[in-house]
Structure formats: structure tokens, C-alpha cells
Write a structure and sequence with these properties.
Largest sheet: 10 strands, antiparallel
Number of strands: 30
Strand content: 35-45%
Distance between the termini: 15 Å
Number of helices: 2
Structural class: mainly beta
Oligomer: single chain
Low-confidence stretches: 1-14, 222-233, 401-428, 435-464
Helix content: under 10%
Shape: globular
Length: 464
């Protein structure tokens, strides 16, 4: 089986530290993003970029000064920090203003623990459509009938072995649901973005002490509270299911799949020591779909999730996809996608290596984003209610998308199956038909096996 490879620009799998920051980024569907300078570490950097305006008259976004900085240090004591700051912000000719905006993120990891924080992240003197607003973490603000904003948007995630922490914040994130102020619907303006990632290196084993005739007994430390798998328990699963209409939502895996409710089950390798979602088992390479119209973000690698991504829908809810084998062309930070668009393909990367192929899927309601990664709720009822997409097709320019004209995925950038025609004889026309009517079936571990079937019709040569 062949699959589309992940981007060369994705996060490095090795332990270490990275940081990223930008003050302003304008994302318009189908166009390259524009904004202030982006800084990336491990190479430490500071940028003082002065005033900024887009377009040149500043009618969409302007600021009188912009400053960004990043720093990262790797090793057994790893750390990372990122800061973006701007003054006198104006959006859409003064419909949204602020005196100062700061986005700041820190991450620290040692061989024993990991932690992070958002530092001095804040918005001062925020005014939205003429009304003063005192922002709270992950607060959603309605913008008349043309969009919404999320203030002090933040998320932190901890890895356990080896210890690591991922932290990001967007001080103000504006989404357009309709054309407005010179930007088309589904555009996004990110203000004050900062991201910090730190993962400690595995320490070298200490040399053994020489044997001694004198034996001393050291008292055993008190063991921390653990779950059934021996994982430290730092939080509890949530026993709530916020209402979400199934209209406009689709099941996240195309084709045959199975899952059971494993939310809250003990896990030794995730934050809090419990399972934050459900595992949906499917063959390797099965297309993974956007469950709703929304924006893709945080595409890349981490130790637990492997190749993973997040999707934020138009209501502000967020969905986590993990253990992908590959991405589709739509899996790009800031990409606006429709329900049913293919984002990637089922695999078992990260800590799922060696297990049956599956998608780890989580649901994070907008009202619980302030809890960070532990704001996940049981996705089972939502998965049971969502529609299963029946048809997808591959468009070279746009990636996989729903299609009503096809009855199965057409061959494109990923090869899902093949037939062996080496046994066909060129002297017997019917032998080619018999070879091509070998039907693939699911075998052990999601692999495809061939089982001979009686010929139902003559083979058709496709365009794949």
C-alpha cells in the first residue's frame, strides 16, 4: 500500500525544543497568508518591526508597533518561550480596537516533569463594535452577523515519557462567516500568536556503584495516585455531554470502521492518565474526514499522537485527530474545509505503533476550552448520530472531497488496493477477467487480502 507522505516541514520527531511567534497573520481562502514577520526557534531571535498596515491604507488591520521574540533550549533540561506584542490595534477601520495585545507561551521539561504557561498574555482596552469587553480565556465574542472572535485562545498538552509540554496561545482570533470589510467569508485574522514546545532528552544511564559490604536501607517514597494502568491521575473525565445538533456533521472515517466507548479508560501515556476520546478502527489508509465546516490548525507530530491535527468548527468546538499515516493536501494550518473533506489517512503512528490501525478522535466543546486538554467530553453519542459519507473522490488540485457521482474512492495520490494479473495467459482472453475479479478483503491488522470471486462483469479500465 502506498500513501501520500507527510510534509517535510512537519514537526521533528526527536526530543528537543521549538518556539514560534507572529503578531499579525491574515488568512484568506485560496491565497497565501500575509502579515508580520514570523520567528522560529531553536535559533533565538527578536524582531522590532515598527508599524504594520494591511492593505496599505490599514482598512483591514493596522498597528503602530510590532515586536516578536523566540527562544529554545534542548537537553535534559529543555525550555522554550515565544512572545508577540503589538500596540494600537485596529481591525476593519475601527470596528475592533485595543491599546495593547500580548501573546506569550512558555514550556519547560526535565527528565522528571514538564509544565507550561501563557505568561503575560493579555488584551488591554478591547472595544468590539463600540462596546468595551473585558476578555476571559477562550471567550467567544459574536461579531454582528458577519463573524465571531475568540479572545485569549489557549491550549496546553503534556507528554509523560519522556516528559514534554506543548503550549500555544492566540490573543485574538477573528473568523468571518460572511464577506466583510474587504475580506471574503471564511477568512481569519490571528493577532498575538505564540507557541512553545519542550521535550526533555532521555538521560544517559548512570554508572553502577561498586559493590560494598555495607548495606543501607533507604525508605521508599510515597507513590503518587495512579490508575489501573499505573499512570499518574492528575484529572478526571467529564461526565457531561453538551448539546450539538448533528446537522452539518459527518462521521470522521470513510468506509468500514468500528468503535466502542473507551472515553475515560485508563491510559499510561496521556495527560491525566485517562483516555480523552474514542478509537475508530479501520484499514490502513482509510480516508479521515473533516466532521464539520471549519479551520484546520496544529498540524504536525507529537510523541503520543504521532501525525495529528486539530479542526475548529464554526461554533468554536474543536476536534482532535491522532495516529494518522499521512495527510491530504487540505491538512495545512489555517485551511478552511467543508464537512466531509479528506484531511488524512488512518494509521498507527506515535504511541499507537504496533497496534491495529485506528483514528484516535476527541471532542472539545467551546464552553470547556478553558480546561485545556482536559476539556474533552465523551464523543460516543456524537459519533453515533453523525452521518456516514458514502462517496468521496480525488481531485488533484484540491484533495479528497465528497462526490455524488462515484460509488467508491477513485485512485489518486494513494493506492488502496491492487490485483495480481501475473497468472493471466495472453492466449486466453477470459483468464485476464478471472485475475482482475480477485476481490480484496480485510485481513489481520487491517491489511488487505485477496479472495477469488466469480466474475460479475467485464473489467473496466479506469483513469486513475
Amino acid at each position: 500500500m502506498c500513501a501520500l507522505g507527510a510534509s517535510d516541514g512537519a514537526a521533528d520527531r526527536s526530543a528537543g525544543s521549538t518556539a514560534r511567534a507572529w503578531a499579525i497573520k491574515v488568512i484568506v481562502p485560496g491565497q497565501p497568508s500575509v502579515g508580520t514577520r514570523e520567528l522560529d526557534a531553536p535559533e533565538d531571535g527578536v524582531a522590532f518591526d515598527g508599524a504594520y498596515a494591511y492593505p496599505t491604507d490599514g482598512s483591514i488591520v493596522s498597528a503602530t508597533s510590532v515586536t516578536t521574540s523566540v527562544t529554545a533550549t534542548s537537553g535534559e533540561q529543555a525550555s522554550a518561550g515565544a512572545t508577540s506584542q503589538l500596540t494600537s490595534l485596529s481591525l476593519f477601520a475601527g470596528e475592533i480596537t485595543a491599546a495593547t495585545i500580548t501573546g506569550e507561551a512558555h514550556a519547560n521539561a526535565s527528565t522528571a516533569s514538564a509544565s507550561g504557561d501563557i505568561g503575560a498574555t493579555a488584551i488591554s482596552q478591547l472595544v468590539v463594535l463600540g462596546q468595551a469587553v473585558t476578555p476571559a480565556a477562550n471567550q467567544q465574542i459574536q461579531l454582528a452577523d458577519w463573524g465571531y472572535a475568540i479572545a485569549l485562545e489557549q491550549k496546553g498538552q503534556r507528554d509523560d515519557q519522556p516528559p514534554g509540554y506543548h503550549d500555544f496561545v492566540t490573543a485574538l482570533d477573528v473568523f468571518l462567516t460572511a464577506d466583510h470589510g474587504g475580506l471574503p467569508a471564511h477568512s481569519e485574522i490571528q493577532i498575538g500568536y505564540a507557541e512553545a514546545n519542550a521535550q526533555a532528552s532521555v538521560p544517559q544511564p548512570l554508572p553502577k556503584a561498586p559493590s560494598s559490604p555495607t548495606t543501607t536501607t533507604t525508605p521508599k517514597p510515597t507513590a503518587p495516585k495512579t490508575n489501573a494502568n499505573g499512570a499518574p491521575v492528575t484529572s478526571k473525565p467529564l461526565d457531561i455531554t453538551p448539546t450539538l445538533s448533528p446537522q452539518g456533521y459527518v462521521f470522521p472515517v470513510y468506509g468500514p470502521s468500528s468503535f466502542t466507548d473507551t472515553y475515560g479508560a485508563g491510559r499510561s501515556d496521556v495527560s491525566g492518565g485517562w483516555h480523552h476520546g474514542d478509537d475508530i478502527f479501520a484499514p490502513l489508509g482509510a480516508p479521515i474526514l473533516a466532521v464539520a465546516h471549519g479551520t484546520v490548525f496544529s498540524v504536525g507530530w507529537n510523541k503520543v499522537g504521532g501525525w495529528r491535527l486539530w479542526l475548529r468548527d464554526d461554533k468554536g468546538w474543536e476536534y482532535y485527530y491522532a495516529h494518522l499515516s499521512a495527510y491530504s493536501p487540505l491538512a495545512v494550518n489555517g485551511a478552511v474545509v467543508n464537512a466531509g473533506d479528506v484531511l488524512g489517512f488512518v494509521g498507527n503512528t506515535g504511541d499507537a505503533e504496533g497496534t491495529p490501525f485506528h483514528l484516535h478522535f476527541e471532542v472539545h466543546p467551546v464552553g470547556l476550552l478553558g480546561l485545556g486538554y482536559d476539556g474533552a467530553v465523551d464523543p460516543t453519542k456524537y459519533l453515533d448520530a453523525w452521518q456516514h459519507v458514502q462517496n468521496v473522490r480525488f481531485d488533484a488540485a484540491a484533495g479528497w472531497r465528497p462526490a455524488s457521482s462515484a460509488t467508491a474512492p477513485k485512485a489518486g495520490a494513494i493506492l488502496l488496493q491492487s490485483s495480481d494479473i501475473s497468472s493471466a495467459s495472453g492466449l486466453d482472453p477470459s483468464s485476464l477477467e478471472r485475475a482482475l475479479t480477485q476481490r480484496p478483503t480485510e485481513g489481520t491488522g487491517g491489511q488487505l487480502a485477496s479472495t477469488a470471486q466469480p466474475p460479475a462483469s467485464k473489467p473496466v479500465v479506469g483513469t486513475g
